Amino acid sequence: xIPKIFFTxxxxxxxxxxxxxxxxxxxxxxxxxxxxxxFQQELFTSLDSLVEQIRRNQISEKILWxxxxxxxxxxxxxxxxxxxxxxxxxxxxxxxxxxxxxxGKDRHLCQIAYYRQKEYNSKSxxxxxxxxxxxxxxxxxxxxxxxxxxxxxxxxxxGSIEYYYRDTIRIDRAEKFAQKNxxxxxxxxxxxxxxxxxxxxxxxxxxxxxxxxxxxxxxGKLRDGFGVLGDDVIxxxxxxxxxxxDLFHYYxxxxxxxxxxxxxxxxxxxxxxxxxxxxxxDGEIAEQKELVEILQKYMDxxxxxxxxxxxxxNIWTDRSGIYxxxxxxxxxxxxxxxxxxxxxxxxxxxxxxxxxxxxxxKPNHIEPFLQSIDDLLGINRSNFxxxxxxxxENYR
Length: 396
Hints:
With 396 residues, this protein is α/β, with parallel strands linked by helices. It has helices at 4-20, 29-34, 37-56, 69-86, 146-149, 171-187, 203-210, 244-253, 263-274, 288-301, 307-312, 332-357, 366-377, 384-393; strands at residues 26-27, 92-104, 107-117, 124-136, 139-143, 154-158, 161-165, 195-198, 212-215, 228-229, 233-235. It folds into two domains: 4-149, Nuclear Transport Factor 2, Chain: A, CATH 3.10.450; 257-396, no CATH class.
């Protein structure tokens, strides 16, 4: 017979879990006192619903502010992916409403905390998410705070791109980006995409504009970008007006499903058609021509360099040091891929390019790329150094 004390123990454990690990979010008494009593219940019920829909990754269009629904849905789906990465079988995710205050008629800015906790240990903060709450026709909807934070910024239309900036804008860079937008659309046979382009100093400012006040996975990151969001929003890399690298990825995604895309090809073409993603120390983003010239000088100084090894070992991170004087982020493997992709384009046009883009990633991204360039160009492991050396020399 099981002792009565055991049932009592089980009851208290269950009670503890139901109180502390329930889906409903808690908040401080101070916050409760600051909000209108009638509005409290409506607000908290809606916020609970938002958090639960994010957790299930089933975000209803009905809870999204219609003027920004695509972007907001994209960001809330990103929150879902963050939340999944925070937990495993031993961790529990809990939420709290830390702050909420009016920012105008029928609008509030609310901050939601995501904590990770292992059983009864102390909670660790993983994410602080700010969302705008809109009340229209008696209904609450949600969005990112981007519109609110940038409402007073300057605007400049350049082609199909509307730039948002605080102080100044480099029109020459903006025009180059607008022209590449037309080029990419033409090559992929898609309509030219209109974009809202936000100029930000760094990745942390980008995150804040989207509502990520804190993300444990992004601590200290400054030089990253976020690609095209919600089909029509893009942010600069370190305040540079030409982020055509990720614009290329956007157009490629309109044709090729994620499951079949090959990222050796993608990054090579983004280096060639767009640019090298990261800014140099002087604020400009390096382009293919400059990186080829530096590689040529390196080869002159190192005539016995193994180009196949240089390619394979410096695609995802670069340990070669070839571009260290420009910036720490450029990868010579991607530069070599770009030259090979250019040769495929020269011989086979978009038909060959699309073949390369959709060759998949099994068993890894490199092997299908090597197999395809053997089929398309006759370049393989045995002749890689000789053939790629000639490609590089052709750029002199």
